[in-house]
Amino acid sequence: MAKIHFDTDYMSGAHPKVMERLMETNFDQTPGYGTDTYTAEAKELILEACGTPDARVFFLVGGTQTNSTVIDGVLARHEGVLCAESGHINVHESGAIEATGHKVLILPSYEGKVAAEDVSRYIEIFYSDETYEHMVAPGMLYISFPTEYGTIYSLKELQDISDVCHKAGIPLFIDGARLGYGLAADGGDVTLKDIARLSDVFYIGGTKVGALFGEAVVVTDPNLLKNFTPLVKQHGALLAKGRLLGVQFGALFTDGLYDTISKDCVGKAMRVRNIFTEKGYKVEVDSPTNQQFFRLPNDVIDRLKEDVSFELWGPRGETETVVRFVTGWTTTDNDIDTLESILNQKS
Amino acid sequence: MAKIHFDTDYMSGAHPKVMERLMETNFDQTPGYGTDTYTAEAKELILEACGTPDARVFFLVGGTQTNSTVIDGVLARHEGVLCAESGHINVHESGAIEATGHKVLILPSYEGKVAAEDVSRYIEIFYSDETYEHMVAPGMLYISFPTEYGTIYSLKELQDISDVCHKAGIPLFIDGARLGYGLAADGGDVTLKDIARLSDVFYIGGTKVGALFGEAVVVTDPNLLKNFTPLVKQHGALLAKGRLLGVQFGALFTDGLYDTISKDCVGKAMRVRNIFTEKGYKVEVDSPTNQQFFRLPNDVIDRLKEDVSFELWGPRGETETVVRFVTGWTTTDNDIDTLESILNQKS
Amino acid sequence: MAKIHFDTDYMSGAHPKVMERLMETNFDQTPGYGTDTYTAEAKELILEACGTPDARVFFLVGGTQTNSTVIDGVLARHEGVLCAESGHINVHESGAIEATGHKVLILPSYEGKVAAEDVSRYIEIFYSDETYEHMVAPGMLYISFPTEYGTIYSLKELQDISDVCHKAGIPLFIDGARLGYGLAADGGDVTLKDIARLSDVFYIGGTKVGALFGEAVVVTDPNLLKNFTPLVKQHGALLAKGRLLGVQFGALFTDGLYDTISKDCVGKAMRVRNIFTEKGYKVEVDSPTNQQFFRLPNDVIDRLKEDVSFELWGPRGETETVVRFVTGWTTTDNDIDTLESILNQKS
Amino acid sequence: MAKIHFDTDYMSGAHPKVMERLMETNFDQTPGYGTDTYTAEAKELILEACGTPDARVFFLVGGTQTNSTVIDGVLARHEGVLCAESGHINVHESGAIEATGHKVLILPSYEGKVAAEDVSRYIEIFYSDETYEHMVAPGMLYISFPTEYGTIYSLKELQDISDVCHKAGIPLFIDGARLGYGLAADGGDVTLKDIARLSDVFYIGGTKVGALFGEAVVVTDPNLLKNFTPLVKQHGALLAKGRLLGVQFGALFTDGLYDTISKDCVGKAMRVRNIFTEKGYKVEVDSPTNQQFFRLPNDVIDRLKEDVSFELWGPRGETETVVRFVTGWTTTDNDIDTLESILNQKS
Asked: Residue B272 contacts by C-beta under 8 Å, 6 or more apart in sequence?
């Protein structure tokens, strides 16, 4: 029996409807670097979905690239970016932000989330310090939605964070590498329009939500990133065959495919969660999205690993360890049935 | 009648055989970031073709990205990269090299090529200057093969350049964004094995030779780029679904597809060239590869533009202007027949 | 009555013997950028004092500049620098390290010090993480001696830290902006020769120990910073009239002036400490060097401030606040007598 | 007989009046980092001399440092700095500008000067190129006054350059490392007030005009460099004992000392020039400032070198070589008499 996989949501190619569009358009000849009509159409679809007709959209290839390009473009040279200690840019991007010359300024992380009060307090303390010019000024706030722990902000929390940022005059940037799953979260009350309204720049992740690759940056603040294209090029993030991004996002934003994929994955993740909790295993983080974290006995982990692939979350503990199970667009109900029967046998 | 296109070689998607492999493997689930078996197999195929079993291969997404990541990884902080004045990194990468902190050091360009003697002289004069520590040390040489003008080095020229570099102790880096066309050049005597043997690091361009995207970096010097993967990640160049690069390069290096595409395009470019020269137009640069440069009267350009798309090469002159015609894997014999008949009508 | 000052140790010009040498040599004409004989002589004096005849010495102007230049020169592009959370490079250098592209990697701070076990654990956990290539590799360790809290490492602690670094193959860099005070510390057992023997690169602070400005970088590891002069120039740290640094350090390392200044200041700091503790005030950090930290009631602070200048250490508390008193080469016994009588009146 | 020196203008310490003020104020205790009253007073004196009461003044330590800090602060991430090919930032700063991530964009050099028309043409051609977003945008203009060849702009030339810059919306930055000599130039018609009026940011060099070190940056455009102090700190350019700069510039701008030194040196340089031209030697560059360039036979050079030190300007020629003679504040009339008699003997 082949193993079933819950390692992550970027283990396969693209959703069949995305591949179909790539095949249909494969022989078309278009100008490069995203100046084609597929790209223009995809931008329109995205702006419509966001309810921000005047915003600007840029397509980049991957998440780390998008984070470093946006942050480099927003910050002044003496500024850094506020971020939860657990934030992807602080932990898992090989220093991409610092490589552009900017410090990542650490905020406490509450299961991956930052608190509006902490942002507010950081800024207040910073400017009340007489030596603040010898420290790195907070120039923007980075949050992820959903976070690296699969958690999401409520609309109220997001509104508060947005208010704090705008009161302090610093832009709010939302990393939406898994945005779809956050919007489709079980019990969530945040919409794409809310994200667009409350942030100054954010992106809609394609790589982890059904595309081969690609992230759609939406800049809602007209004063930000005014010369973004040369910076995208400078960061090596301007795809020659840019229309590949337009075609893919065009497919994802046609007939609600992006939402459908997201909801389906979250639904499957809820099934995975139930299977584990019904067996009495502890949920480590209360995640309403497609990433689920459980604390399992090491012997159960070892037996499961024979037939199922998934990641340990952090170092292996003495008797039990936190593991992550992720659903993606290729996860089938049959996979989850199999997982359930394996778990019944092995735990 | 639809326009025919000779703008560039990245106007379509991927060669059908590449797309076919992407479709076949689309539902497979593999680990991310190039740790999959498709990628491992593609690396083996490339090393075999290069005749360098001990070299290392890394897959990146695009050319500018590859240039800046490689150069940033090779140079020490106080060093710059030698480059023809016309070199892509000096002209058309939005300052991507400087953005990593390194100066591009200019050498004379002879239709895009550098001369071994100029490299040698630069280094000699540099170190004979008493204030050389106040100047940027030449830390590597960048050349493109073929060049931005479609020209190529002969094996003798390449050998001389390689000798000069190695005598001076500086690595030779070859930008092979269009490498296939250089190897398939009309009258060329350089093979892939020569490229691998004479350089210290080079890349095999996929984006412009039949792939959707992708560049295969081959590091032949075991002392270079020892910790390259974190640097690739830092540069935002590590594709999450890395296997997409493995699958594509696997297809390109199976049954000689890469060579076949390249030879076919060069052959078609030679037809284009003949059509123009037979009509009495002047070849601006003597290019044996898939880019052809002609000097055309402005009125001919204007009439051609009605039915054919192509690029002006530099600013429009008073009465005549240099233009570029490029063939790609989608260029058909029929396109060229059409071009010929249009030219017959319009000139 | 003029205020007496305990704000910091860089409030005056240079020690009279340093000024005397600057005056004596003022009309001499020497070549620039530290290629003069005063500089050569000062280097010899320093190497002799360090017991490292084969080490190399470079003179830079200030501390932040020295930290960023050394760290930029030591680290590879994918590496960061380990540092106590309270370290100067992490807190008070306006992001100078990040501006060179490198992340500051945080270790726990124990009154400004790092623990050898924490360094060891960080490195071990880092390389045991499967995704370590997506994180910033620890490429060197930065410690300060004395620390920002005036504390010092014992010889045993320093030896352990050095052992951990060398076992892991990462250089140990000691920020000695106040090195003299650390070596002259009350109860300390570390000598300059120990510093030179146990570290790979360190610097001897002049700015805060009697010079107008200047830091003497000593590189004991022959494989480090092989092309340091161009990097110093690139960082804007190569003084045109470089002999000013040679003359000053020549004076400081003649007849033990550097030690004399340091011991005198530490002795005076111990007097300050006694004055406060005898009045029953709490010592906040047990510092054996020229910086002393006390927790004082706010009303005492306010009254003292009328006649004495000193810094609050961190934000003002509700009823009491930590303050810092620093002695420098201009602090006189009379100043301390005055402080004592003021404190008697005002507390 | 001791050699006489014409190597450069930074061979000695500081002008006696500057040293006197440093000695007088040596024991004063002031707050650090330029927040003292000496610095405030010096700023006032400079602003008065510039006729720009609302401009801002910042003191940095050296020229390369000042260039890289100002340019880094002015440019957006995608921009580069226009500069004559011979400009100091392009040639002799070890890549300090590129190290901050910015390309130096080359203009033709006319004995060190740029032409307004070339600036205008560069900008026009740049924005008329369809691929301009793939190239580095000209974000400011750097010129030096006097230039590296000792030449100066006329008021008309400077006005034209300023007009071109302001029409194009790019700031004009003047490197005034030797500003005094330019203002005192033989036949020059540019005043300090003109410099302040026509540029957006410039600096008044101290290092080469009588100070131990120090450059006074004057920012006349209120929209530029709004958060400059943290950037100065980040660049390692914020002197702890900042008052040393205030004291020195205070002395230089009291009773016209800066002008007096400059005029005296230029006068002496004119004497040097006459001595050589009267002997029939060729002036290589027609410089009206304190740097003089002659083309001398190699055998004359060799004989002169026995008693006089000076620099070869570029590589030694086959039979004759260009040499540079520089006067500084320590150059005496007696030195020049000696030079004359040596030249009479040896040529």
From this structure: B6, B292, B325, B327, B336, B339
The correct CATH number of C16-255 out of 3.40.640.10, 2.40.128.10, 3.20.20.70, 3.90.1300.10 is 3.40.640.10
Q: Where are any strands of DSSP class E within chain B?
A: 4-5, 56-60, 79-84, 104-107, 137-144, 172-175, 201-205, 215-219, 282-285, 291-297, 308-309, 311-312, 320-326
Angle, in degrees to the nearest 10, between helices B37-50 and B243-252: 40
Per-residue pLDDT of chain A (347 residues; tens, 9 = 90+): 689 999 999 999 999 999 999 999 999 999 999 999 999 999 999 999 999 999 999 999 999 999 999 999 999 999 999 999 999 999 999 999 999 999 999 999 999 999 999 999 999 999 999 899 999 999 999 999 999 999 999 999 999 999 999 999 999 999 999 999 999 999 999 999 999 999 999 999 999 999 999 999 999 999 999 999 999 999 999 999 999 999 999 999 999 999 999 999 999 999 999 999 999 999 999 999 999 999 999 999 999 999 999 999 988 899 999 999 999 999 999 999 999 999 999 87
The per-residue pLDDT for range A217-265, each reduced to its tens digit, is: 999 999 999 999 999 999 999 999 999 999 999 999 999 999 999 999 9
Distance from CA of A8 to the nearest CA of C (A): 14
ipTM over 0.90: yes
d(CA B324, CA B320): 13
Check CB contact under 8 Å for A72 and D73. Answer: no
| pTM of the shown model | 0.97
How far apart (Å, rounded) are the C-alpha atoms in residues C161 and C158? 5
**Which of B73, B135, B229 has its CB closest to that of C77?**
B73
For CA atoms A248, A253, A255, A260, the dihedral sign is positive
The continuous run of DSSP H or E covering A114 comes out as: none
CATH of A16-257, one of 3.40.640.10, 3.30.360.10, 3.20.20.70, 3.40.430.10: 3.40.640.10
Query: What pLDDT sits at residue D180?
Result: 98
Q: Which 312-331 residues of chain A touch chain C by CB within 8 A?
A: 315
**Rounded-to-integer distance, Cα A310 and Cα A313, Å:** 9
- Look at residue C1 in the predicted model and tell me its pLDDT: 62
- D321 beta partners: D296
Pick the CATH number of B16-256 from 3.55.30.10, 3.40.640.10, 3.90.960.10, 3.30.1390.10: 3.40.640.10
Distance separating alpha carbons of residues D89 and D143, to the nearest angstrom: 10
Chain B residues in contact with D133 (beta carbon < 8 A): 94
Put simply, the chain D residues between 262 and 321 with a CB less than 8 A from any chain C CB are: none
| Residues in chain D within 8 Å Cβ distance of A73 | 77
Question: For residue C232, what pLDDT is reported?
Answer: 98
Does residue B21 belong to the interface with chain A, where contact is any CB pair within 8 Å?
A: no
Per-residue pLDDT of A274-315, as tens digits, reads 999 999 999 999 999 999 999 999 999 999 999 999 999 988
Contacts of A95 in chain C (CB under 8 A): 78, 80, 101-103, 136
CATH, domain D4-10+258-346, list 3.40.50.620, 3.90.320.10, 3.90.1150.10, 3.40.50.720: 3.90.1150.10
Q: Please tell me which of the candidates B73, B78, B234 has its beta carbon nearest to residue C231.
A: B78
Given CB atoms, is B77 within the 8 Å cutoff of chain C? yes
Residue pairs between chains A and D whose CB atoms are closer than 8 Å: 40
Q: Which residues of D touch C95 (CB under 8 A)?
A: 234
CA distance A145 to chain B (A): 19
Q: How far is D227 from chain A (nearest CA, A)?
A: 8
pLDDT of C317 > 80? The answer is: yes
| Per-residue pLDDT, A314 | 84
Name the residue ranges covered by the structural domains of chain C: 4-10+258-346, 16-255
Helix axis angle for B155-168 and B116-128, nearest 10°, is 20
Q: Hey, is the C-beta of A74 within 8 angstroms of any chain D C-beta?
A: no
